[in-house]
Write a structure and sequence with these properties.
Chain lengths: ~375, ~350
């Protein structure tokens, strides 16, 4: 906020920077702070953007392929897919890979947070604890930096957006999907994505989308809402926003393989019965997803800052005030819980002993 | 008798007239007798389908038998919601083809693998299979028993693997490891129209490797090959499993013919075209060539193992013990060391 004021003063006193004198017509009443957005724009371009995207979904839904397709890069050069036996032992991991992408002078520092192991185990009850902890840790770190003395180089590693991959093979959301989304919808912007959409016919896709939206509202899950286009935007942009909003959840396909179709090389998947084109809007919603992401990167960051981070911050600061009393209460609580557990275990042992006595002796 | 044999069994060329040849007795006519008797009796087949919700199990069964025999078709009011626990639902149909009647029972297992905590989700299924064996056993050891014991034993269990393209999941391994000892498991890759041919081959290789590493024997099991001819045929099948299948009950016009398939913007997947998917191989295996073999292995091997174990458990007179002691969930260790 204070940089705006400084800029205004500078311009008002007639001092222009880097030879922009020609841009200031000497008409009466023109002050010149209309040039401010350009200055902000130039500064941001110099500074570069940061964006953290988290991808969550079961193994084998094409998450890595989609990320590579979206950003036209290979984020996972030495990818190792573990065998089934190893999967049994694994818990959810958090893997963050950062890549610097530059396009037309604009630098983007993109961090993709992957969550391998999610939903793999037979019992997936604890698989999202690790993920929630990671998100909270990033908020915690930012809070700490923000409250510190040197605030010049705060690195923003907070998760700005989470792509949640829904399997196209089910009839809607699975119990795990619902539980996970309910647990993080107050911490991060959720964008649900239907993966491997080439397995659905058009009718199945529409039905699935409707089903998912119904279930999302039924369970009270708050997904990221695209903001409506401002009234002063042009018609085309408004139309684009309308189309985007109507297509959520996006049904996407990813691929980085080039296939020749009608003389052109395009990205797609080659099947014996045809070629699915990634960038064909009639085949899937990949382009829509990409458009949504790039036109709303700023908004996603804003919502993270203004809504999710502020929620976390107020919770955190309130909690810090109450820790002393809570600790004592907690201890009593813990004691009661432990006693209950002990009783339960004793019951179980008694049951097992009774069972063993009843079985026809075959020892 | 010789006359009827002549009309229905085309004689190989060069065979002399009946009765004229010294040394021909007419024993082969028994084949015809058996055939007629079997046709009169009809056949029974019990197939179980296991897999997460939405993998196309009901559609595949309908496609296999070209009629609406699955649970979904019979109970349309049953909405597509995920039940809180695993349910076992049986649906029976009498179907007929060229005078051959078959009582087909499809056993569905909605709720398998759909919960957040899927531990021991194989147990209700194992319990069901053992209950069928138990039922048959009780009939068999009855003092006055029925002429034809109704056979509700599960002859084949089709296990649906989701087409992730990577490898088997822990739940797949758990299930198949436990159940391959009591029933014939035929694993299939469901909704295979999401895999390209290279991805499909890679996936199959990984699956076969995972099965080998975990010592899971799926149908056709190597140890039950009877002779070298069997082994040759079955080896070819073993190189192709799991079959990558696509199911559909809708017909589309392709090249002037009406075919079962799935129509998308970029092409139509033909279900019975072996260049597209392996549904035809699965159908041939289950119905045209190995159906009797599936039933034989179930009754002469899996059932016998169960029977021996049960009879050893109850050393006393078995018929005065009610079903109370039939172990719904036999321990895995007992089975394997009994074998």
């Amino acid at each position: 906020m204070f940089s705006f004021v400084a800029g205004f003063r500078q311009v008002a006193s007639g001092m222009s920077q880097s030879g922009e004198k020609g841009k200031f017509p000497e008409a009466a009443g023109y002050v010149g702070f209309a040039n401010l957005p350009n200055q902000v724009h130039r500064k941001s371009v110099k500074k570069g953007f940061e964006f953290t995207l988290m991808v969550v979904g079961e193994s084998g839904l094409g998450k890595s392929t989609l990320i590579n397709s979206l950003f036209l890069t290979d984020l996972y050069p030495e990818r190792y897919i573990p065998g089934a036996a190893e999967k049994i032992e694994r818990t959810v991991q958090i893997e963050a890979s950062t890549v610097e992408i530059e396009e037309r002078g604009v630098k983007l520092r993109l961090t993709v947070v992957d969550t391998p192991g999610y939903g793999d185990a037979i019992n997936s009850q604890d698989c999202f604890k690790t993920i929630i902890q990671y998100i909270d840790n990033q908020f915690e770190r930012y809070l700490h930096d923000e409250s510190g003395l040197n605030r010049r180089h705060i690195v923003d590693n907070r998760v700005h957006c989470c792509f949640y991959f829904i399997s196209p093979f089910g009839h809607g959301l699975k119990p795990l999907d619902v539980e996970f989304m309910k647990a993080i919808h107050s911490k991060v912007n959720i964008v649900p994505v239907i993966a491997k959409a080439d397995t659905l016919t058009l009718r199945e896709r529409d039905r699935l989308k409707r089903r998912i939206l119904d279930e999302i509202s039924e369970h009270g899950i708050r997904i990221y809402q695209l903001p409506d286009a401002d009234s002063d935007e042009d018609e085309e942009f408004k139309e684009q926003t309308r189309v985007l909003k109507a297509s959520i959840p996006f049904a996407v396909i990813g691929s980085n393989q080039l296939i020749e179709v009608k003389g052109k090389k395009i990205r797609g998947r080659l099947y014996p019965w045809g070629v699915v084109e990634v960038e064909n809007p009639e085949h899937n919603d990949f382009l829509k997803l990409r458009t949504m992401l790039v036109t709303h990167m700023q908004d996603l960051q804003e919502v993270t800052q203004d809504l999710h981070y502020e929620n976390f911050r107020s919770e955190r600061l309130k909690r810090a005030g109450r820790t002393v009393e809570e600790e004592v209460l907690d201890k009593d609580q813990i004691l009661l819980e432990k006693e209950a557990e002990l009783r339960r275990m004793q019951q179980m042992i008694a049951q097992m002993q009774a069972q063993m006595k009843m079985k026809p002796g075959d020892d | 008798m010789a006359d009827t044999a002549k009309t229905t069994h085309p004689q190989p060329a060069g065979r002399p007239e009946k009765g004229a040849e010294f040394g021909y007795v007419g024993i082969d006519a028994i084949l015809e007798q058996m055939r007629r008797k079997a046709m009169k009796q009809g056949f029974e087949l019990n197939i179980m389908v296991v897999g997460q919700s939405g993998l196309g199990k009901s559609t595949l069964i309908n496609t296999l038998f070209k009629s609406k025999v699955s649970r979904r078709s019979v109970m349309p009011s049953d909405e597509e919601r995920i039940p809180k626990t695993i349910e076992i639902k049986s649906v029976s149909h009498d179907i007929e083809e060229k005078g051959v009647r078959m009582k087909l029972t499809v056993i569905d297992t909605p709720g398998f693998g759909d919960q957040i905590n899927n531990e021991n989700c194989w147990q209700p299924i194992m319990k069901f299979i053992n209950e069928q064996y138990e039922q048959y056993l009780q009939e068999e050891i009855n003092i006055s028993r029925k002429k034809r014991i109704p056979d509700s034993r599960v002859h084949c269990c089709i296990y649906f693997i989701p087409p992730t393209g990577h490898c088997l999941r822990p739940i797949d391994i758990e299930f198949m490891r436990h159940l391959s000892k009591v029933v014939n498991i035929v694993p299939v890759i469901a909704k295979a129209d999401t895999l390209t041919l290279e991805e499909r081959d890679f996936f199959k290789q990984k699956i076969r490797e995972d099965l080998r590493v975990n010592e899971i024997e799926v149908y056709p099991q190597k140890e039950f090959d009877e002779d070298s001819e069997d082994r040759m045929i079955n080896d070819k099948i073993r190189e192709m499993i799991p079959f990558a299948v696509v199911g559909s009950d809708q017909e589309y016009q392709v090249n002037g013919k009406r075919l079962l398939g799935r129509k998308t913007r970029w092409g139509t997947v033909e279900v019975e075209n072996t260049a597209h998917c392996e549904f035809a191989y699965l159908r041939d295996l289950l119905i045209r060539t190995h159906m009797q073999n599936l039933k034989d292995i179930t009754s002469s091997i899996h059932y016998e193992v169960y029977r021996v174990r049960r009879l050893n458990e109850n050393n006393t007179h078995p018929s005065d013990q009610p079903n109370g002691h039939s172990n719904g969930v036999p321990t895995h260790e007992v089975l394997s060391h009994e074998m």
